[in-house]
Amino acid sequence: MTKNPSWLHRIVLSCLIVACSFAIFEGYKNSEAFAQTAQNPAIIVKNRIDRMKALKEAFSVLTMMTTGKRDYDSKTALAAATKVEKITAEILEMFPKGSLIPPSEALPAIWEDWDRFRTDAETSHGETLALVEAIAHNDQADFQNRHKNVGRTCKMCHRRFKQR
Ligand code: HEC
């Protein structure tokens, strides 16, 4: 009878250890560290260039509407602006440390001055939210202004952090 509790103890303890290790591993798997070590830089670079191209494509739909090359249509504009908003929200994740290999045109300054880069990405995303709002409210004048502002944030970041 006296042996039973310690035997039980051991089993409970072993189970706890297994459960904890599992939980820690699960947490690690979801962490940024894992995402960064699990992916290879070539894939990261390729994916982010694709995302930036998609960003340009969506943004140029809006540019054409501001210059009259394309008729303004709020449904198309909203879809394009929402895409721009979604992609700019992902910018920071697109640049994990160590993802600087050809053909990337990113500059090392990104990781040397991450705070600045983060601010540029957040500012850009903030402006895209305002752009989406302007379209949702069908405010054409505001749309023009907000579009200009977003375009400025693309250029500002590229000037600082992208090869020309
Ligand atoms: C916070 C910084 C930042 C913001 C904001 C940003 N970009 Fe970029 N963009 C970059 C960097 C850095 C690269 C280079 C990426 C690489 O080559 O690895 C890049 C690359 C590009 C490219 C080149 C892709 C190719 O073909 O190689 C395009 C096009 C582009 N961005 C469009 C845009 C547009 C449009 C916006 C605004 C709506 C924007 N970007 C906002 C940092 C930014």
Helix fraction bin? over 70%
CATH class of the largest domain: Mainly Alpha
Name the overall outline.
Answer: elongated
CATH architecture of the largest domain: Up-down Bundle
CATH superfamily of the largest domain: Cytochrome c/b562
Largest sheet at a glance?
none
Number of domains: 2
Beta-strand content:
under 5%
Low confidence ranges: none
H/I helix tally: 7
CATH topology of the largest domain: Four Helix Bundle (Hemerythrin (Met), subunit A)
Note down, in words, how this protein is organized:
With 164 residues, the chain is an all-alpha fold. It is built from seven helices and no strands. It has two domains: 30 residues; 122 residues, Cytochrome c/b562 (Four Helix Bundle (Hemerythrin (Met), subunit A)). It starts with a helix and ends with a helix. Helix content is 78%, strand content 0%. It is elongated. The model has no long low-confidence stretch (mean pLDDT 88). The longest helix is centred in the N-terminal third of the chain and has 28 residues. Bound molecules: heme C. Heme C (HEC) binds next to helix 3, helix 6 and helix 7.
What is the fold's blueprint, element by element?
Elements: H1 3-30, H2 32-38, H3 41-67, H4 74-90, H5 109-112, H6 114-136, H7 140-161
Helix pairs in contact: 3-4, 3-7, 4-6, 6-7
Bound molecules: heme C.
Residues 45, 48-49, 52-53, 55-56, 59, 84, 91, 104-106, 117, 120-121, 124, 150, 153-154, 157-158, 161-162 line the site of heme C (HEC).
